[in-house]
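We store chain and fold; example below:
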Amino acid sequence: MSAPRAQVFAFLEALPNHWALAGRWIKVVSLNGSADEAPDGGVVRIHGPLGLRRTARTRVLSGEPPERISGSAELSGGTTATVSWTLAERSGGT
């Protein structure tokens, strides 16, 4: 990306932006937190091919600005996943 690492991290840290990267495949159902706090997770509906749909409870696990952000997703059946982004400077961008 042509943006500085800190700017990309700030974009990813705002959860609605983070999920927007998945386009039509993920829809936000609800966000955790209050009006005074940034959300630290929520519930998303994941749409896959052939009509596959799953609902996941997500949360931010850690953030190390501007380099790394990680989180988890848990499905009702017990399946869990950990997702992390590690951002590196490359040729004036990220």
In short: Helices lie at 5-13, 15-20. The chain has a mean pLDDT of 87.
